[in-house]
Amino acid sequence: MTDFRFELLGTDGQARTGLIHTPRGDIRTPAFMPVGTAGTVKAMLPQSVRETGADVILGNTYHLMLRPGAERVARLGGLHRFSGWERPILTDSGGYQVMSLSKLRKITEEGVRFRSHVDGSEQFLSPERAMEVQRLLGSDIQMVLDECPALPADEARIEKSWELSLRWARRSKQAFGEQPGHACFGIVQGGTYPKLRRRSLEDLMEIGFDGYAVGGLAVGESQSEMFDTLDAVAPHMPANRPRYLMGVGKPSDIIGAVLRGIDMFDCVLPTRSGRNGQAFTPEGALNLRNARFADDSGPIDPACSCPACRQFSRAYLHHVVKAGEIIAAMLLTWHNLFFYQRIMAGLRQAISSGQLQSWVARFHQGVVD
């Protein structure tokens, strides 16, 4: 069996390109992971997701444990077989969803007691249960359980939350145990306070993880605050481990984070936007609901080779968006994921060739190559 390991292939400034080797295939970095919350990337077939250029997708522990249930997925052969995606899967721990979706919850040292948003049943998620669910799902990269407070928050609140997350990280790592070919990632917390972020990272490195994520961002802070936080923590992250910025983000967020040494990203933005009639282009996002596209015979993006751009006009896409046709969500989601993967491929090539700054300058001028 192939071991889980990170291979650094090149750098340009702080930016990195490499390969995460897993038994289910390599993940090229910088990597964008489409979000498959409930075992599906919405409006996409698994093979279509792969055709956009994705090497890995994300599944959600919270949603899958509630429906259809981790034990059921395990009985049916694990999440890869169940969902039809045979390449790597990263699962988050469910902590963020517990905090954001559950109106009735109680956080204690042991874990979080909450009511399901599906049927109102009482549930309990501890570090041990979060890791058990992920093991049952069979995901390749498994995240520790953490608490993710909303920003802004004062330093005392963030410090208390970070300390709890660190204790949960120790328990999560112990519960992860030995899973050859699988990985467990720690999550750096600490809000926008550099001192707390570095302390969190140092303590997680002492525990020892296969990769390190930066969590607790894209939750209300500005882009400049996010970048300042990355400037404080990313240079200190182990060079021989993957670095993952959770829940980010817009193309400009991703590019800024790559410039600061981050390797992995996930965000619902391209899929959610596609379902809501929005298409990403190098010149900015287009709202296909807008009446100005009703007679536009051109493609979304002349430089794009996705099915939506190859076969359909802006006028047609405007029509199916306005009519509420399912094909609108399918085509625009495909286009947006394709656009994000074009960005990642361009970043990888630019880093490898030492041309990152000129690539970024062209991107800001409306060119993705």
Quick summary:
With 369 residues, the chain is an alpha/beta fold. It has helices at 46-51, 61-66, 70-75, 79-83, 95-101, 127-137, 155-176, 194-207, 223-233, 251-259, 269-275, 307-311, 314-323, 326-353, 356-364, and strands at residues 5-12, 15-21, 27-29, 31-33, 57-60, 89-92, 105-107, 112-115, 122-125, 141-143, 183-188, 211-214, 243-245, 264-266, 278-281, 284-287.
The dominant shape is globular
The stretches of 5 or more residues where confidence is low (pLDDT under 50) are none
Beta percentage is: 15-25%
Percentage of residues assigned to helices: 40-55%
What CATH architecture of the largest domain do you see? Alpha-Beta Barrel
The number of distinct β-strands equals 16
- The structure class reads alpha/beta
Q: Biggest sheet, strands in spatial order? A: 4-14-13-12-11-10-6-5
| SS element count, helices | 15
Briefly note the CATH topology name of the largest domain: TIM Barrel
